[in-house]
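hey m, so remember when u said the C-alpha cells were messed up on ur end? i reran from scratch. heres the input so u can diff it against urs
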Amino acid sequence: MFINRTHRRLSAKFAAFFTILFLLLAAGCKSAGKQVETTPKAPVEQQNTLKKYPGAMLWQIDGTAADGTPSKVYLLGTYHAGDDRVLTFPECVSQALEESDRFCCELSSEVWVQLPQMMQDLTVQSFLTDLSHTLIDDLTPDEITLINSFMDSQTFAQLVCFEPWVLNNYLQPVVMLAADLDSQKAYDVMIMDYVEKNKNNQGFDGLDDAQTQLDLISYGDWDTQMIMLRDTLHDLSDLATAADEMKELYEIFLSGDEQAFEEFYFKDFESEIKKHPVYKDYFSKLLNQRNEAWAVKIADYLDQPGVTFVFAGCAHFTGQDSVFEYMRENGDLNY
C-alpha cells in the first residue's frame, strides 16, 4: 500500500525519533490535534504575501507585525530522512536560517528532550494485560513467516505481547532502510544542529504538543491497528517496490517541485479511504486538523516583529488542505 510505503517525523542523539516523524509523513503518503476555532478575518485587511523558492521546498511569507514593523516567516518543508545530498543546505535555505530570529519545529526542543521517556511510557502502557489473546492469534502463518524474516524469534515473541502499533512501528523503518535513507540525515536534524551551534542553542518552539504525535503513533483500536499493520506487511512482501516508491517521493522532494510532490503523495488517499474507511479519520488527524492548528500559530508569528523559521513535514504545505489554504480561509494570507 502506497500510504505506508511512503510513510507511517536536535542533535544526533534524538535522530532515532525522526524515524517516528518520518513514518507519520510516510503514513500520510497515508492532534490528534484539537480542532481550532478561528474567527475569519477580512482578507482585505491583510497584506501577508506568500512566495516559493524554486528548487527547494522553501516558502516565505512577508507580513506586518502588530506594532506596524515588517515581519517574515520562512517555512521549510522537510522529509524526515535523507542521504548525503542533504548534508548541506541549498543557498536559499542557508540565507533564511542566518536571517531568522526564532525557530519552530513540529515539536519543541523541550519536548524532544522528554520524548524518549514518553515513548517508553507509551509502549509500556500498550503491554497486554490479558495474554490469552495476543497478536499471534490474529496473524496468519504466512504473515508470521514474513515478520520472522525481518527480526529474530525472541524479539517477535516479545512484540506480540503488545498492541499491534508497537510491532508496526518496529517493522516500518525496514522500507526506509531498503530505500537507502537515514533518519539521521534529514534537514530537521541538521537544522536542530545549526540552531545549537550558530544561534547560541536558543532552542525552538513546537507546532504540536507531545500528545498530538503520541496519539498518532498509537492511533486506533485493535482492529484499526491490525489494518495498518497488515498494510505494512503488504509493503514488506514486495519490499523492492515499496522502497522504489519511497525513493521516488524523496527525489521529487529534493527537486523542490511542489506540484509533483502533491500529486505523488496524495494520489492514493481516496482509494485507501474507500478500501479502509478508518483511514478517513486518521488522515484528518494526521494532516487536516494539525494544518488548521498550525495555520493559527504561523499567523501569530506574523504578528511578531522579526523573522521566524518554521521547519516541518513537507506534506503539510502542499495539497488542497495545506497550512496555506487554512491561512487563506482565515484571512491571514492573500490569495
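this time it looks ok to me. Residues 175 and 243 are 5 Å apart (CA to CA). if urs says something different then somethings off w ur setup not the seq
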